[in-house]
Inverse folding.
C-alpha cells in the first residue's frame, strides 16, 4: 500500500527566503506526482505535475523535482512571499486501472511572514 | 480549463439524514472522482467514476455511499444515512487527462 510522507509538517520563514518542501513515497511504481496548494477551508489548487519519466517541472517561482527510484520529490519555492502561506500537499498517482486515484501526504503548513 | 464547481459549499445535517453533494456543471468530461478530508487529516480517495460507471472505490466507500450522473452533467455523491464521522470536506475532481482538478469542496457537518 502506497504511503506518502511530507517533511516538515510546518515551516515558518521570513519573506524572501528560498525554501524546500519534501515528499517521500514508499512505492516507486507511480504514474505521476502532483503538488497542490490548499488555503484554509478551501479546495486544492494544482501547482505542478511531474510525469514518472520526468525529473522536474517549473512554474514561475516553483520548481518540483522527482527522483522516482528513491521515492522522493521536492518542491522548491524561490523568493517566498506572504501570499505563499498555505498548506502544500504532495500526491502520487498510481495510474493504470487506478487512474485518478491519488494518495496524499499530510501536507506542509507554510507561513511566510513579512 | 474551467474549474470544478461544487454545491452547496456548506451542508449541515442531522445524523441519520440523507445528503446529496453535487458537482455542477460539467460537460465533456469522462473521469470524475470524490475525495474527502476529515479535519486535520489527509485527503482520502473515495471513488472514481468513468463512462457512467464506478471504476474503483476505496474501503471507505461502503453501502451508505453512492454516485451518479442523473442528467448527464451533474455528478452527485449521496450519503444515505449520515453518521457523525461523515463530517468532512468532500471534494469533487475531474480530469480529461492529467492533472486532476479539484473543486472548492463541500463542508459537511453532521450533528
Amino acid at each position: 500500500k502506497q504511503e506518502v510522507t511530507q517533511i516538515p509538517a510546518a515551516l515558518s520563514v521570513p519573506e524572501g527566503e528560498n525554501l524546500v518542501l519534501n515528499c517521500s513515497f514508499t512505492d516507486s511504481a507511480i504514474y505521476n506526482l502532483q503538488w497542490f496548494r490548499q488555503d484554509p477551508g478551501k479546495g486544492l489548487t494544482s501547482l505542478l505535475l511531474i510525469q514518472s519519466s520526468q525529473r522536474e517541472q517549473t512554474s514561475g517561482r516553483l520548481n518540483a523535482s522527482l527522483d522516482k527510484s528513491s521515492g522522493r520529490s521536492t518542491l522548491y519555492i524561490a523568493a517566498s512571499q506572504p501570499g505563499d502561506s498555505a498548506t502544500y500537499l504532495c500526491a502520487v498517482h498510481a495510474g493504470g486501472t487506478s487512474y485518478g486515484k491519488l494518495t496524499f501526504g499530510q501536507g506542509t503548513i507554510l507561513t511566510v511572514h513579512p | 480549463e474551467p474549474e470544478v464547481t461544487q454545491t452547496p459549499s456548506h451542508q449541515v445535517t442531522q445524523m441519520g439524514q440523507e445528503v446529496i453533494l453535487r458537482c455542477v456543471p460539467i460537460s465533456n468530461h469522462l473521469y470524475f472522482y470524490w475525495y474527502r478530508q476529515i479535519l486535520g487529516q489527509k485527503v482520502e480517495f473515495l471513488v472514481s467514476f468513468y463512462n457512467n460507471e464506478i471504476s474503483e472505490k476505496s474501503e471507505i466507500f461502503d453501502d451508505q455511499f453512492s454516485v451518479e450522473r442523473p442528467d448527464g452533467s451533474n455528478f452527485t455523491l449521496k450519503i444515505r444515512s449520515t453518521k457523525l464521522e461523515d463530517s468532512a470536506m468532500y471534494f469533487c475532481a475531474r480530469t480529461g487527462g492529467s492533472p486532476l482538478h479539484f473543486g472548492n469542496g463541500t463542508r459537511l457537518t453532521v450533528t
